Amino acid sequence: MIDLEAVRRVYPDGFVALHDLTLRIAAGTTLALVGPSGCGKTTTLKLINRLLTPSSGRVLIEGHDAAAQDPIALRRRMGWVVQEAGLFPHLTAQANVEIVPTLLGWDAARRARRAAELLELVGLDPRQHAGRYPAQLSGGQRQRVGLARALAVDPPILLMDEPFGALDPLTRRRLQEEFRALQARLAKTVVLVTHDVGEACYLADRIAVLDAGRLVQIGTPEQLRAAPASDFVAAFLHRQPGAT
Q1: Which end of the chain is less packed: N or C, by CB atoms within 10 Å?
Q2: Which helix (H) or strand (E) holds 182?
Q3: What are the helix and strand counts (H, E) for the chain?
Q4: Which H, E and C letters describe 113-143, residue by residue?
Q5: pLDDT tens for each residue of 128-156
Q6: What is the pTM of this model?
Q7: Taking a C-beta distance cutoff of 8 angstroms, is the pair 134, 142 a contact?
Q8: Distance, CA of 235 to CA of 230 (rounded, Å)
Q9: How many CA atoms lie within 13 A of 205 on its CB side?
Q10: d(CA 198, CA 215)
């Protein structure tokens, strides 16, 4: 479970990125963060894994204050998936997946078994893809490797920042379907940032709509569609290309 309690983030120039954000993300569920550019979505992810610290308020991870935990150890318990996968270009697909297990001191045989298992899990034949470098993979394949890397040490939490945003529509839809099936099996606690409300409605149990650093509405996709809390929410849902 992840709790954000009245979290405020102010930058040195005085810009307020988040205004007293309070959220609860239940274990095993997916929460999508949506809203215009600059509304605080990615800031929220970075506060959860301590890439940023709150100016006030608290972030609790499974009931423990994130500020009291070692940031490196905390991040190793979270998977991080970004747009374009963020793979190291000089490492093979297998080596990219093995990064965190290597840091944790796993032996080579255990790392290799886990990498092969995860590549298979995300739909890549390890015999064909393990030894390829990112430049030798398609965009969809790189994104699959990025997801496998995020799952390497079986973290309870996945943070996903526009993970499918750079893909063509067909590949994007296929990966959305596969991620949804994967989440049904693994039941991770997922926080997903996306600009596509259609994607949010398809993948998330609940959606939080942000505007200018403030939480405007949170609810299930059905609740947001049936009863938007404001004209802003209604207009935002309506104008998104993926919205239904």
Answers
A1: C
A2: helix 169-186
A3: 11, 10
A4: HHHHHHHHHCCCCHHHHCCCCHHHCCHHHHH
A5: 999 999 999 998 899 889 999 988 988 99
A6: 0.86
A7: yes
A8: 9
A9: 15
A10: 19
